[in-house]
Write a structure and sequence with these properties.
alpha/beta, Rossmann fold, five-stranded parallel beta sheet, P-loop_NTPase
Length: about 230
């Protein structure tokens, strides 16, 4: 078993031991949804609308802020780890002068604890491998995808530049997101079994139907787990 997996298991076990007697650990107060998305697939829009529909918080940048607060470190450094986990190994010079031990293991453990804490309260958690961390929790795990060309054209329609540039951006960002989840959790975004539902938005001009479907699923999972079904 790899060091990465052992580190994640240890962090999860620590959170579980601390919150063993807390009923919200098993039954969150409100629905919990994790959304993993391709760039340009509409995942961010869907996450935002879903949080409004369910009247629950949306956690994206908030996760980074919480990690930075717990580490008592510069949010810019945490963002470097978030955007390029592998580069953390090259941050020895920063650690030398700052005295802060911000490395892969520290970041990973803190990320797990933050996501699990948020998962106990309810909300929509975007990206950062939340679907892996909450795989045993009362959470709906969603993957939003799209073919690169269509995702690129969707971004162009929103005023984000030319086709060639956007296509490169789609491929680059999707690669980084997949690499992050693999390096941190040894899990692949292409593994459909890691999600409760996989949605390709290529033929969807309006995401309201997707939001409505996910709302029903999230409420069903939340109610079913609470009722012990």
């Amino acid at each position: 078993m790899s060091h990465n997996i052992l580190s994640v298991i240890a962090a999860m076990a620590e959170v579980a031991n601390v919150t063993h007697d807390d009923p919200t650990t098993r039954h969150p107060k409100k629905p919990v949804i994790t959304i993993s998305r391709d760039y340009g697939s509409g995942g961010d829009v869907i996450a935002h609308r879903l949080s409004q529909r369910l009247e629950i918080p949306l956690y994206d940048e908030e996760v980074l802020k919480e990690i930075a607060m717990r580490l008592q470190d510069d949010p810019a450094v945490v963002r470097m780890l978030d955007e390029g986990f592998g580069r953390a190994k090259d941050m020895w010079l920063y650690r030398l002068f700052s005295g802060n031990d911000v490395g892969p293991d520290v970041y990973r453990d803190t990320l797990v604890k933050v996501v699990m804490s948020l998962g106990r309260m309810g909300g929509v958690l975007v990206g950062r491998g939340a679907h892996v961390i909450l795989h045993e929790a009362c959470a709906l795990r969603v993957r939003i995808t799209g073919t690169p060309e269509i995702c690129a054209r969707r971004m162009i329609g929103q005023g984000y530049g030319g086709l060639e540039h956007q296509l490169e951006k789609v491929l680059e960002i999707n690669h980084k997101r997949g690499k992050f989840v693999w390096e941190v959790f040894n899990s692949r975004l292409s593994d459909a079994s890691q999600f409760d539902i996989n949605i390709n938005t290529d033929r969807m001009a309006d995401f309201e139907d997707v939001v409505g479907m996910l709302e029903v699923m999230a409420r069903a999972i939340h109610a079913g787990r609470v009722l012990g079904l």
